[in-house]
Design goal:
Radius of gyration: 18 Å
Distance between the termini: 33 Å
Helix content: 40-55%
Strand content: 5-15%
Largest sheet: 3 strands, mixed
Order of helices and strands: HHHEHEEHHHHHH
Structural class: mainly alpha
Number of helices: 10
Number of strands: 3
Length: 208
């Protein structure tokens, strides 16, 4: 991942925009950069499609819109590969299709697409897919790049500064999730990595 510049770090220092977890600082800055570029306030839900509009040559598609036989489309909506979420496919030089599982809820789709967005933005190396596997593994996975993309996408969807204010105001994970159009599980995740979880967990009605 490209390191955030010292000027950016210094500009945000002491503003309350960055959580106390040092391991998160780089991804938090990248997430805030995106919101600033899009002109989206930190208290507002992020339009994931607006983010992709900032990536020239990128098209977002539900897998059901692909020219595939219906049996293959349904395979990804059922027990076959129902847990598959999304992927970016290079169609031609400068042309990317980001495909997501249209059987998933909009909250899961938003998290999936923001993860794929940052894979492209960071120019992460591509996974390799193997149709005929001898060891049961059908794709290569680099945990480092997967974590970078997921953490940054989650931070873009749920900025720390607003999450902290909502937790301090006594809102539950469910209510915060509804505001940002994400799942309560993603709110729990953000609260944990930003060290807000003990306070969130104690709120009445919060998922445990």
């Amino acid at each position: 991942m490209q390191r955030v510049s010292y000027a950016t770090i210094n500009r945000r220092k002491g503003t309350g925009l960055i959580p106390p977890n040092k391991k998160q600082w780089n991804v938090e800055h990248h997430a805030l950069d995106l919101r600033e570029e899009l002109g989206v306030g930190f208290e507002l839900p992020l339009d994931h499609l607006a983010a992709f509009a900032a990536l020239p040559g990128t098209k977002v598609l539900p897998h059901g819109a692909l020219p595939l036989a219906n049996e293959f489309v349904e395979h990804f909506r059922s027990d076959g590969l129902g847990n598959w979420s999304g992927m970016a496919v290079s169609i031609a030089p400068g042309v990317e299709w980001v495909i997501y599982n249209d059987a998933h809820s909009i909250t899961r789709v938003r998290a999936t697409l923001m993860e794929e967005f940052f894979h492209l933005r960071f120019k992460h190396p591509r996974s390799k897919v193997r149709l005929l596997s001898t060891d049961g593994k059908h794709r290569t996975i680099d945990p480092t790049v997967e974590n970078e993309a997921y953490h940054t996408g989650a931070a873009a969807l749920v900025p720390f500064v607003t999450l902290k204010r909502m937790v301090d105001d006594g809102l539950t994970a469910d209510k915060i999730a509804k505001h940002f159009r994400v799942s309560p599980g993603l709110i729990d995740f953000r609260a944990k990595v930003t060290k807000l979880y003990p306070r969130l967990r104690n709120r009445s009605g919060t998922r445990r």
